[in-house]
Amino acid sequence: MSRPKNNIARLPWEVREIIARMLFDGATYGEIRAAIAPEAPGVKLHSSSFAAYAAGAEYKQYADRRRQWDAAAQERRTLAAAITADGSIETAMQAAEYLALRNIIEQLQSGELDPNDTPKMANAVARFRGSQVADLKADHKRRIERIEAEHDADCAEYDADIAELKTQIAQLRNMLEEAAGARSVDPAKVAEGLDQVLGIKRD
User: Fold this and answer.
1) Contact 53/21 with Cβ under 8 angstroms?
2) For 10-16, which contacts have Cβ atoms below 8 Å and span 24 or more sequence positions?
3) What backbone phi and psi angles, to 5 degrees, belong to 12?
4) Nearest alpha carbon to residue 19 among 51, 64, 65
């Protein structure tokens, strides 16, 4: 890779990468000098050096790749948000297929993929689509089964609570019948019996 002939070109790639990243992110020359000082002590970089580097092939290539990476990352975030909001199998499958096709297009444009291999790649995407649908359906089924199991457990707990309440009601009814048949009723004893049945503790 050709590089402009300036002080930056003679720096190690680790330092040049910091410079390229900060230039792309809009940092000032002063901020860049401060950032690379620990890695390149004693190196003095003038504004003209930054300008020359920004006009060179290395930075342009870095900037092109960063724009591609940022665009791809934004696409993934957008797709992830759509899947989260929708939650449907079809949306997730379409997102996965879109990313796969986008990757094929980028490889064709960059020359990394032989056009003759495009049909094979398309078939691979189709197989991928099928496997994704199967996996998503299985996951959906597991989620339904888990929800149903939780529902059954809740119903069993409610049934147990209802049975216990029925027992308490029967006990209260017996106590009231006994109190009504007695010649003398001690309200304190009736209250104490109610507290015992209901599990109430009084100070």
Assistant:
1) no
2) 11/36, 11/40, 11/43, 12/39, 14/39, 15/39, 15/40, 16/53, 16/58
3) -60, 155
4) 51
Q: Do residues 136 and 93 touch, judged by C-beta distance below 8 A?
A: yes
Instruction: Tell me how far the alpha carbon of residue 148 is from its chain's centroid.
Output: 25
> Residues 6 or more apart from 3 whose CB is under 8 A from it?
9, 56, 57, 58
Residue with tokens 């049975």: 163
Which tens digits make up the pLDDT trace of 57-90?
999 999 998 888 888 777 777 766 666 665 554 5
The owner of tokens 């996951």 is 139
* pLDDT tens-digit readout, 137-176: 777 778 888 888 888 888 888 888 888 877 877 777 777 6
Distance CA 75, CA 56 (A): 29
Length of the chain: 203
Query: Other CB atoms closer than 10 Å to residue 48's CB: what's the count?
Result: 10
Contact 93, 135 (CB under 8 A): no
pLDDT confidence band for 49 (50 / 70 / 90): very high
Q: Which pTM does this prediction carry?
A: 0.41
* DSSP-derived secondary structure letter, 5: S
